[in-house]
Amino acid sequence: MPSRPWRPKVGAAAVVVSAEIEAEVAQLDDLNERLEFLEGLGLDETGLSRVIRADTNFLISLPFFTCGPKETRAWTVAQGATAPEAAGRIHSDFQKGFIRAETIAYDDYLEHAGEQGAKDAGRMRQEGKDYITKDGDVMLFRFNV
Amino acid sequence: MGFNCGIVGLPNVGKSTLFNALDGDGPGRSGELSVLHDRTEFGRVAVPDPRLGELASIASSAKVVPTYLEFVDIAGLVRGASKGEGLGNKFLSHIREVDAICHVLRCFDGGEVTHVEGSIDPVRDAEIVETELLTRRSGIHGAASRYGSKRAKGGDREARAQTGSP
Description:
heterodimer, A: 145 residues, three-stranded antiparallel sheet, two-stranded antiparallel sheet, elongated, B: 166 residues, alpha/beta, four-stranded mixed sheet, 16% strand
């Protein structure tokens, strides 16, 4: 096999995966069996987790959260997306009628024990249409259609 | 809505094997199907994120929903697909709908699995597929801008703003 360098024409991350090994791993239902099998081959995780990590590590997409008593949910949006675009991932109406996003950084949310605490500590930001969504933002979208 | 990731590559490079493995479904339909399957398959996996649990416990949420990475198995591309070779355009239209592209390159030897180009050369393969995608993309852009200017002429405000016409 000839080896020469290749530079993709677009930004790209590369992950080496053996599809054959992955297929065999996928046949094992038990998680421990999977790990044992991988260990036997000198690997410590499946190709799938490496592919998922490549996605987040190489900044293709980023997660943000919505959080409340009903549910806590992770969402994905493209890197560099604005707040209305993030809102649009949830519902296109959120994007169309976007007013603002009440945003708390993940660390602040944790440190001040939730939305109310963060609000009282002045860590809740009112972000507008031009805000670029950041990794781990906990967001509440205000909209009107 | 999760993130869409389309799996592309030449035929017989291991796309479907990889897809089935990622999907965790065991063997699906792969195994030298050079005859080009024309179905597009979807599979999704939850993206693990430890922060989700932390948030949920603070907000005492009733439900925790992870985000999903959705893989779309787009059938094999061949040289000239953007001009309609093989099942070309059909797959290429699926690529339009994805958020990210996962390009599978064959680096394994293996006499019994034939390579459409006759030899193993990942760099050449990469370039073939990229060329097809780029050719196709310029086609899409052309069509989109024609459609946009038509709407702009008709007085659509959004289209006007996008095309920059007064």
